[in-house]
Design a protein that fits this description.
alpha+beta; 4 domains; 14 helices; 11 strands; elongated
Amino acid sequence: MTLWHRFRSWLRGTFQRSRIEREMDAELRFHIDAYADDLVRAGVPREEAVRRARIEFGGIEKTKEECREARALSWLGQLWRDIRFGLRLLMKSPGFTATAIIALALGIGADTAMYTIVNGALSWDLGLDNRDQIVMVRSSDLRRGENWGVSYPDFRDLRAQVKSLAGLAAYQLVPVNVSDESALPERYYCVQMSANGFSVVQHKPLLGRDFIPADEQPGAPPVLMLGYHVWRDRYGQDPDILGKTVRVDEVPRAVIGVMPPGRRFPEDTDLWVPLIPDAASEKRDSRELMLFGRLRDGVGVAKARTEVAALSGRLAAQYPDTNKDITADVRADPGDYRRLFYETAVCGVVCRRRLRVTDRVRRCGEYASWPCRRSLSRDFHTHGDWSGEDPNPAAAFAGESRPLGSGRIPGIVGCGRRTEVV
């Protein structure tokens, strides 16, 4: 039988079920009567002939059931009947139906929200294609046991002397106000970054250019690079954005480039401006910068850590007034630590939430079987002397349960409450 004939047979069995049942009943009775007539002609009394014919067929209803099971795609018809039966039960108890749907919706919604947070945290790469090569460099006070940033003079010395890193850049993140004629002022996160920052992480702009060494010299014309989402949302992807003036904290800056989508290194950045040292940042004990670098091919984090620690020791000996007990450390990309933090903190919440939701769903399912138990209890009461008391919907959701005993219907699994016989 082809798939089309099976589908057509299922359609006919689904939408013309009464007609098919009548035809099947008439055909079965015809065969029983024909066999009984043969026995009558052989000299068997009519009543005995009918009895023998029914015994030979094994019962009309049993034969009907075998015919239904042999029908193509009969399981779809059974599924449709089960769905209709379930809908009728739910419609008979609208209060329970609304409560169960709300409970399930809240549980599924909470799970979805938590999984979304975890997925975002674990996949947060800020557009890095070479994450395994990017490292962070920070300083720490061995005497106080405190972790600090790095001063600009120390950064300059480390960048000039380190050999295990293909590049070393510095940055600091500051919130800024952006204003121009395009829209109302808005608050963004801006990274002040050394000119080599984009070359270290090997990022290229979508439009224009990135920073050059001249941009970070004192007195250089103020410039600005936009994140793709800022260019899209605030400036409507204006193709003539390059060269336009944008005021960043009331400082006019010329837009020189736009980064591609997803490129927001180092800290979910909206804007980038050059890191220009001033008198305050030239102090060696002003440790406010974060450093990141890219490992050379074939160089591991351990080797880079050893070299940077040795260089920081030389700086401590050379500048004892500001660098005594100050050492530098090399760590893997901070995204790994962020993901570890989210994995331990957020996933713990998810697990606890899932346990509560799973318990609530179990109770909802237990209470959902109450209409079925009511129906079955009527049948049992017809043939026995079992009786019980009203189920308590509030107790169903409170998690109450009763021990196994005479209050249960024989053969019913998971019936945790007695059912009133109506």
